[in-house]
What does this fold into?
Amino acid sequence: MTAPLLLRIEHLTMRFGGLVAVDDVSFEAADRQITAIIGPNGAGKTTVFNCLTGFYKPTIGMLTLRRPGGATFLLERMDGYRIGQVARVARTFQNIRLFPRMSVLENLMVAQHNKLMRASGYTFFGLFGLPVYRHAEARALDLARYWLDRIGLTARADEEAGNMAYGEQRRLEIARAMCTEPVLLCLDEPAAGLNPRESAELNELLLFIRDEHKIGVLLIEHDMSVVMKISDHVVVLDYGRKISAGSPTSVRNDPVVIRAYLGEEEDEALPPEVETDLKFGA
Amino acid sequence: MEYFVQQLINGLTLGAVYGLIAIGYTMVYGIIGMINFAHGDIFMIGGFVSIITFMVLGVFGITWVPLALVCMLVMAMAFTGLHGWAVERIGYRALRNAPRLAPLISAIGMSIFLQNYVQLLQGARNKPLPPIISGGIELMTSSEGFTVKLGYMQIIIMVTTTVIMVGFTLMIARTPLGRQQRACEQDMKMARLLGVNVDRTISLTFIMGAALAAAAGLIWLLYYGIIDFYVGFLAGIKAFTAAVLGGIGSLPGAMVGGLLIGVIEVFYAGYFSSAYKDVAVFMILVLVLIFLPTGLIGRPDIEKV
Amino acid sequence: MAAIGAGAERQLSFGEMIRDAAAVALVALGLALPLVGFQTVDRGAGMILETRFGAMFYAVGVIFVGRFVLGLIDAGRGRPILAASGAFSAAWVLNAIFDVAPPIEHVTLGWLTWLVAMTIALRAWFVLRRGARPAGRDGTRAGALPAVWLERVGRLVVPAALTFAVVMPFLPFADQRLVDLGILVLTYTMLGWGLNVVVGLAGLLDLGYVAFYAVGAYSYALISINLGLNFWETLPFAGAVAAFFGVALGFPVLRLRGDYLAIVTLGFGEMIRLILLNWDDLSNGAKGIGDIPRPSFFGLQFTAAPREGVAAFHEYFDLDFSPIHRVIYLYYIILILALLTNWFTLRIRKLPIGRAWEALREDEIACRALGINPTTTKLTAFAIGATFGGFAGSFFATRQGFISPESFNFIESAIILAIVVLGGMGSQLGVVVASVVLIGGPEWFRDLGTFRMVAFGALMVAVMIWRPQGLLAHRDPTVRLPAAPGRPP
It folds into this structure.
């Protein structure tokens, strides 16, 4: 791996009562690369995300984020909201979590909350409309407009976010995460429910984020066409364990991975959708 | 020691009342996830129906105490159950898919309505019930001459409560009705798909809760000998505290929580300060919700992201 | 009421309608039998039982007719029914105004009859209107008024209402009773706007708002009596004490789920009241605190005979003494306080903290992922709401001159919450409309006694069923994308 290290996950374990959702998983994600986590349903992918973004406290394990500037954060010791605020890890959710009754633009402005709070002198300057706040707000609007242009929702900025189509909501959620100006963007199944055209647009958006904004992207995905086309590094989980890792090509040909997806009986015919998935990647 | 035993007896009697009311809160919360704010007033209506039944019986010259008690209980449960049904049908059913706050506001409105409706119809003054059962067993006497008494009234209250609770538990556990009720509680959509009449089940939940609250109202009336239109407010909140303490959604939890709250209230009044006994109950509510949000007998709730 | 939502799914035959109405009447009879049919009448130490079967059967009969007529409306016979019921209720009102011999001696039954007639008339009108414009259902969400309509009305109504509020005490028909009523409505409007920050914007269901009202009132009373400060000097202290209580009570409980939070805040409200009731050394217990200093107009007293060396308002301005001077002055104080609350809320809504409140109301988990600290954000909302509650409490104390724990019941919290929610959560105009209807209305009908509280409860239920989002549920975005594109970042 040539790119500098961004995130190191060591011996991550998460237990819920008797259930071990994640079992001693270690992997790394590099800066300016797209790292994909794949695996069958119930493999523990989302749990890894939830530990990483502070929604769960891991039972065991160390999660270290090393910012390009050199600052280092131990994520497992931070309160959930501080991971977004200080360490600058942003995320999206499997079942989209926008603020549905607020406008599209407001969603992007809420994402810039901490910056604007400081600029508004924790509300005092803002209350009286001092220039320092007005300028900060104008800059925040510029950033929002930049992302609105990027995701093609500029014309609908003042409509309620809940009225957007499904694919638009997915893109808006990514734009909202980007408005926090993160160093690591975590996406939980961003292509779920998208049609092929929207899926292709998503690929483009993710590559753009990686190449133009020069940040690391961590991705959970079921859609192999997305994973194989855009990821630089793939980690495979099964039953809470890491069973394989490497480049997309090496993972695709790993017999352990194939067995995890298809089961032990090798002479059984492949389910058609899996066959398509694997072909897509080829 | 003797004082302690006496307080314990009194506390358990009061706790039986709270427990019976708490079941209504816990069942309704379990099935439609709302706090039925008007439930305390349903309890109050139970008390009023009891005392009116008593006086009607007096008019007909029925004064044999066991028969009178059974009549009061049956009438209170029937008419109060009808009130419980009507409250759900009019105030809550249309709001089942409404924004979260709407049913709660509607319930608060119902509570205000019922209180003032009863005040309007029956007057604002306390309604006294002449003591119809007196005497009791003297359990022990201390050297200073303090006598522990277990009144016949208290015995009747505890026996009645136990019988009602056992019957009710059997109904929930053994009958098809109870099975449908539990099914709706776990997954309403699935129960509907499997042919359970969800509306009817919810109605029955309200009727059952109201009937139990009516029994509590009768007991309250017998024990304190007095009832007024405002009694449901405090008793309702305390019973809700009991439901939370036991673990909301859990029927045995509601009963255990009720007994605990009754005992704690009586002991606090007896040993510390009678003026602050209600504050003590509210403090328990706050502390339980903060430190033990699932209650004593409740399932933990993992936050899904 | 059960007919609402029953809709025109299937046309009922005449016989079925009769049977349906009979079933409803039977249920009504069951409900009415114990509590309406029998009356416990207090006689000295004991009481006796009287029957009221006549009234009971009359009420059940009204319900039978009402239900049957509602069925007829759904069956498409709305027009004659609208005419008949409208004429009937209008005649009833005229009758009441001109005080002709009442058709029914019994006040409550009279009101019941009138209410049923009104309900029928309204229902008929709605059904007819919907029938006339079948397209009315399309885009508009149930319960929300069309935004365009609201915006147009708002642009006219807001300045008109504001002008009216400012000149009202000097209008020819403004007697002391009306100005007093205005003070009351404005107090609740201010409380509603204050609570709107907590419930409407931040989505935190607070059933104990009256606690902060009480804290403000008692702080004001104790500070002004013991330290001898005047109204405007005491106000910030009272607000600060209330804010402190907001933070202290809010901190441990703000992570609770919505309805749990509601019950805990209710508990806090009752605890504060019980403590005030029992802590005699601090609050003088149930006897309350009297002789609270009245506000003075830049040092001028509103008394007929001021103390030695103090100027009186009427002497200074060379007017005849009249108690209405003080009432009018109090009216303007509360108007200023209420408008301050409104200005502050409107302003803060457009700031990052206000947007974060609304975002928290929508989705707390998403907020945490965006790096917003939920605890401090909620606490700010709680503290600001409490401060305005404290200001209103101070005003209440100085207006009454006497406070006791009985003024700070749970019912006060419920009324304030009802104003916020019925008006349409987060809507500033809705709060005004709701407090005029809920406070002004019942206060005007004070002679009705208990019946107006019965109607109040029923109204809360009815409005929630009719419009679960509140009367004026409409939300403007806090910021719009500027037309001209700015610099690229």
